[in-house]
């Protein structure tokens, strides 16, 4: 059995799971009780895994914690790890993303925040530096706010080039940098914003999540406010690929870590209800880069189901075979040990699940 660590961030704390006996899972937690954990990073590039958690206390405010003993103990820096510099006239509201960079940049971790900004760490997440280039972009003052607030919620490094980076902003759209964050350009050609008078603007799309193909590194998958998209040229252009799905709205998209063309989404009905289509808990998987999608729901609840999966709550691990995990706003966590073919519930009655991360640590 693969030694997998599963991190589940919820509205009231972090829960950590490990495979147990007879196919079950053992969870510890809540870590950071009464704090909303919107972001978790599992950094396996060093000699031992480092866990990073972006926790948000309604009393003390947001902070980034780290653990080098799999959650046995946590360290919070004496000074805030992520802090807006003087002159920006703003302060940190939330850390939405903690993303380790590629293997050629040990120690580099990115943090995406609300308000919409990017920070970069070179010491494994202990301290972060403000990426001034994105904040100073002339379009930033015109970015809107998604329902959850204005945030850099997705960071997509390019493993081929440490200076190439992509971010997604709610609701500003996709931006790319080729010079390590010094300069940025909007990259939204083909992405629809059906809530704007000009439905194909240069920027202003409400992008929900972006994931990179593990083999064809110029191929990316994107879940938009309306529509699932693919880019085959590194994000320069996007094309819709969601015609076989029961709804084009959703928050999450995840990819297989080794197989090209394999991606997963959890559709959500657009409009006033925002529930899973047909009130059924269903994951859809493509094995041909979005040309077709097939439902994968064996083991999911048969009864009516209303749990929505948020943008960071559908993830894969790097095991063999690959595990797929989702958490929903009902406080349930489902896992597939066979790349999405079948599912089982491994946790329930948790607080509202905000994010999920999983990695092999043994």
UniProtKB/TrEMBL annotation:
Organism per entry: Streptomyces violaceusniger (strain Tu 4113)
Tell me the Gene3D superfamilies matching this sequence: YVTN repeat-like/Quinoprotein amine dehydrogenase (2.130.10.10)
Biological process GO annotation list?
xyloglucan metabolic process
**Which domain of life does this protein belong to?**
Bacteria
What protein am I looking at?
A: Glycosyl hydrolase
